[in-house]
Specification:
415 residues; alpha/beta; Aspartate Aminotransferase, domain 1; four-stranded antiparallel sheet; 14 helices; binds ligand 7TS
Length: 415
Amino acid sequence: MNQMEVLPFDVEAVRQDFPILRQEHHAGTPLIYLDNGASSQKPAQVIDTISDYYQRYHANVHRGIHKLSEAATAAYEDARRKVQQHINASSRREVIFTRGTTESINLVAQTWGRANLKPGDVVISTVMEHHANIVSWQMLASERGFTLRYLPILVDGTLDLAQYERLLQSEPVKLVVVTHCSNVLGTINPIANMARMAHAAGALLLADGAQSVPHMPVDVQALDVDFMAFSSHKMLGPTGIGVLYGKRDLLEAMPPWMGGGDMISRVTLQGSTWNNLPYKFEAGTPSIAEGIGLGAAVDYLNAVGMEQIQLYTDQLTTYALDHLHEIPQVKIFGAAPARGSLVSFAIEGIHAHDAAQLLDSDGIAVRAGHHCAMPLHEELNVAASVRASFYLYNTFAEIDALAASVRRAIGVYSA
Ligand code: 7TS
């Protein structure tokens, strides 16, 4: 990849929007933030939107008839409409606000799963899932008695789709839960194809979009997923809010999860009836500022353009792969042809945590550990890896600094 290639958008102008990037990480050392897979930074437009809400029109939503409550409700529901359009859901009723990907997956497990899964049924997950898409199903399996199977990966870090086909044909599979993009290998899974195969076998498919929705255009209707989960904080928005997309007929048929205010239509001491979608699944006062902030994040992403973001972060990733491949002591995990904007690697003779600490002293923030994917690390036969994950405000120069810092670590530890 040539650094001189024309960039798909003005990266320097984007960087100016992120106040945190102007601060020094250590005295005299600028911050190089390469931990976007864990959480992204926030532009001033998002921070200001949240601040403006608290300063000018904070009130509870869906309740008061007063002007402030109406303004807060309008902004919160406008954010839902923005999210709906962003992922091309067919109705705003299909967009449930949750606390994040983890809660969205648990919502499906605790409502659809508890109502529909029984002994003899099979749920397929994969070895490359984040713990959220493994543990939630293990917990339910031990309660409901269904069987949980895991798709293995091939040597290049893609899923074994032949095994997928065999499982779908030979077992009573009810649900497939799979990440759209692996947070360790970077593999982008062929979700549309996997959903088609699941549906042909009479199963539903839940896609974990935590690492895909922030980084590429995602159209839930084109993918034909039944559910998709993602988090605001990885896509320039605040923490504390995320989304469960679900097809309307499925959501309509699902029982609610948490009981309380907002989710009911009528309550008597003998029993209650449920509110319409999406409120049936949104008990209690929601994360109002966070929802409105997520709306601002979606606006920001769309102003830059999701295609442009994907194009640019693909360039950064290819550049990082090229530079890290040149270092003989570095072993990169995952070699899928379709990959998201992150690179996980091990450095011969250096524990991932030691490497990350040394990188941090050079101002470079990366993640080290198992990235909430312990089974995958077991498959890869490593205890931990270092992960550099990129976003729209990162630069080629920052990746040069990453490679230089990795070389410095190797020097320090071999001395
Ligand atoms: N699924 C995937 C694929 C993820 O990468 C993450 C977070 C989650 C689910 C959970 O998202 P949450 O917002 O509910 O926490 N992944 C990471 C990571 O890779 N490093 O820190 C968090």
